[in-house]
């Protein structure tokens, strides 16, 4: 599973190696420049102050000032470059994961709450990207700083150098046993964050719904519960984090104290000059900083493992063969198809044959599988066994890239999204003139409504079309299908919220509206069945032509 993420990340990181290299060069300059500062201070103390050389003092202070200025500038440029670079990697990474989400079947996606998917796609991907880019770079520059500063310290005093080398592994060994707890706590944190988002998405979207049911207290109490749970997890995580960060700090303090005492002893004995001791202590501080960076990276491993697992879980386990339909004919044929949702068997060995341009009605009681059958035909669900042909191509277990040119379904519950009316109607199909769109709006009898809009086709449909009635949403969904013009159209209870008079009109005009298309209408409108070529009924896991 993890391999999938490596397969996405590795080429991405490799492609950006020039960016890494640039940042690496910046880091070398900053490390070298930074390492030079304590050496200047040492000379100020030992050669300018103690020997009372005012001229040398001014030169060294000036030098130190300009060096600091240059380093600040380089650091600032590097930071902007790095932010840009890091964002590019994050966004491309997310794009690639997002693209893979489209490969999933509906029943798999339905096992996740949308808020859960959201935290995985946002938070967990952020975490992974941060780790893989920041850590690489931090390791590069840390390694470099370690070498430079170790060499400098070594040149001062070998015994002090050895003393430091003893302390560094101790820090790591002290935090290592805590990894397991950190892993579990991070997992809890992510899950609780997900629960909180879930709660907000659900309750805020339906505030007035809960109010009309008098359920304000129910929601407020749920908010209390969710927040209380979240608080508990955060506090537990915070405590662990404190132990995680403070153990190294304590050990560093111990190290500094010993070095100060021992270094002081050497200075008093005349083996080390005062300036050298000051420089040495500064170098020691500088050495600790990269060491803590490495420790920070190591400490992030448990968190990254959690994110790795959470992102892996939403990636497709296997990728279906990508193909395109290019058949001249678009007859639909279902052969020996069976389908179950887990243990719930919906279809048992069904066959179906629909020739192009036929107008078909699909009827059956609630929950018998009408919508499910059309999900299978549109390839957003895979059958448990059997074959589905569009023309001569079996679409089962395949990723058909141009499936929407052939078969499109108008969902039972109309879907509108936050965007302009035109965007909602055209989706990716941008080459349609406004005049044509307006004609279609006339066909679905939405022209009067359209004329009342201040900004015409550029008017915004707010969040999921909340500024529309359900019947209006159904009409716009119908308009969308008419503009997409696929070869096979599935209309799932497309007039369930449309008034009686227009429902009759739509049914009677199916032939005209969809003249060169196959049409499959799912309906409970049993008085309208006469206009269809054939009527199919789903019953007892079978489909029968009547
Ligand atoms: N994502 C799912 N996971 C598990 N079971 C599901 C899922 N979607 C539908 N079902 C079950 O599959 C059966 C068929 O559902 P489907 O939506 O296809 O019925 P339908 O014939 O379209 O009903 P309706 O007339 O109410 O729209 C139902 O028993 C339903 O509970
Ligand atoms: Mg249905």
UniProtKB/TrEMBL annotation:
Membrane-spanning intervals of the chain: 20-41, 53-74, 136-156, 162-179, 240-265, 277-301
Keywords, comma-separated and alphabetical: ATP-binding, Membrane, Nucleotide-binding, Transmembrane, Transmembrane helix
Pfam family name, one: ABC_membrane
Domain ABC transporter span(s) in chain numbering: 332-546
Gene Ontology CC terms: plasma membrane
GO MF term list: ABC-type oligopeptide transporter activity; ATP binding; ATP hydrolysis activity
InterPro entries recorded: AAA+_ATPase, ABC1_TM_dom, ABC1_TM_sf, ABC_transporter-like_ATP-bd, ABC_transporter-like_CS, P-loop_NTPase, Type_1_exporter
Compartment list: Cell membrane
Mode of membrane association: Multi-pass membrane protein
ABC transmembrane type-1 domain boundaries: 21-303
Protein name as it appears in the record: ABC transporter ATP-binding protein
Protein source organism: Halarcobacter anaerophilus
